[in-house]
Amino acid sequence: MKRILGAFALSLAAFAAQAQDVYMPYDRDTYHLIDRYQIKFGKQVPEMHTAVRAYGRAEVAELAEISARNAVTRADEFNAAYLLNDNWNYTDQAQNESRKPFLTHFYRNVSDLYHVDTEDFVLRVNPVIHFEVGVDNESDGVRYVNTRGAQIEGSIDDRFGFYFFVGENQARYPEYVNRRIRRDGVVPHEGFWKDFKKDGADYITARGYMNYALSKHVEVQLGHDRHFIGDGYRSLIYSDYAPPAFFLKLNTKVWKLHYMNLFQELIPVFNRRDELYPKKYMAMHRLGVNITDNFNFGLYEQVIFARGKGRFELQYLNPIIFYRSVEHGLGSPDNMLLGGDFRWNLWNRLQLYGQVALDEFVLDEVKGGNGWWGNKFGGQFGAKYIDAFGIPNLDLQGEVNAIRPYTYQYEDEFSNFQHYRQPLAHPMGANLVELVGIVRYQPIPRLHLTAKAIATKYGQDVVSATDTLNYGNNVLLSYLDRVSTYGNEIGQGVKTNQVHADLTASFQVRHNLFVDLKQVVRRVKAEGEAPDYNTSFTSFALRWNIPQRLHEF
């Protein structure tokens, strides 16, 4: 697969190229600022398509320039300056020069440890540090995260862009995270890992890519990273929960259209042994249309498949064909998902958004109302309210997600919707209804306060050493082991109510250097003999050029 995609990318590089854009790493806190100003001023940047993340630094810089000209509060002035400085090589309005460089060559600007800026070469080098300590009422001893690494990015000849991130990690997680590790055999968000001391984990996180502008409107990207599709807090299509994966991506932006093709190599099985793991693949495309300057609509289609000896199905390389017709022509052996999304900005203060994901859908069975297991689909609807109730820098978000049982499951791990034993869409799988509420407030420029509550009603599966009762929650299970063909409904199985609350105060000491104080409270109440859990986790963190590590499942 890598040889095929590599040859494909190199063949594309034979064409003349235009100025290249590197992507802004996906950090939910930073992307909230971008979303905030896109809601306020998005009509002035109509070509920005927000449902495919990460965003290009050039378009973020353009939005930041508009935000800086229209800022009315000190917090907005600070945020616009932050975004301009973080994307200084794509704007002439950044005020990024350091007053006191370190040892002459370091921190000559406020955003980078070291940088080079010439006519044909840009290089940015930064350290990555995440030190977090906390206490958990369900665990003995200190819980911690210890990450050290580096981030490098830049461009060559305004044609090639490149990005590289690596971090060495040791961690001891709170018990609710350890329960997920024991269930799935993996560290959430991560790939290969090893035991560390008594109950810790040791792993390396690596991401990187190279991208090349084939023309003014077409770009190719090859690398190893995560992706996120949608405008919501969750994604029912493709989220950043699973670890990075090898990919080839084509982005075409012209007129009011954004057409994205994504081809990925995934790992279906992980057993923690040093051996060559089998492979499966995903092919996806999404067409987004800015129908008006404030309304975007997208359609997507994706297929997950595996072939003998790790072969890629070449027919899925066709970037514009209807995948369902290809899949039928091959004998219908693969897992297809279809769906759509929308984003509607209103009055420069409000955004409505949503998604529909169709894993399988038979209208007659839906009309029959018999709870047929094969009607596998999910829906999302949400809203963002900026400067709520006239209070500057108070932003609210509410979201509801509902996913029917057995959605994302398939016959085996080679075609189900997971990578490295982790869901590719919603981190809790399926068979659930979820409400998300978020309050964000920035009382002073450097301080961000976030209160978050996620209430989920779902049905647990019953898995033991001798038996499996698959009620449709865990995407790792096979739908061949389903409990019933008819009579299925959301929440079936071991009925469980869960509330995850998170209160975080984050202070930006200097550019991309944050101090966090966090309190997480979780309540899990299940019917029958399934255990209940009451979790309280308090932590303090120092982060430098790295986003918060969130475990919201």
TrEMBL record:
Q: Which domain of life is it from?
A: Bacteria
Kindly indicate where the leader peptide sits in this chain: 1-19
Q: Which Gene3D superfamilies match?
A: Capsule assembly protein Wzi
Keyword annotations of the record: Signal
InterPro entries in alphabetical order: Wzi_sf
- Name the record gives this protein: Capsule assembly protein Wzi
**Upper lineage ranks?**
Bacteria, Pseudomonadati, Bacteroidota, Cytophagia, Cytophagales
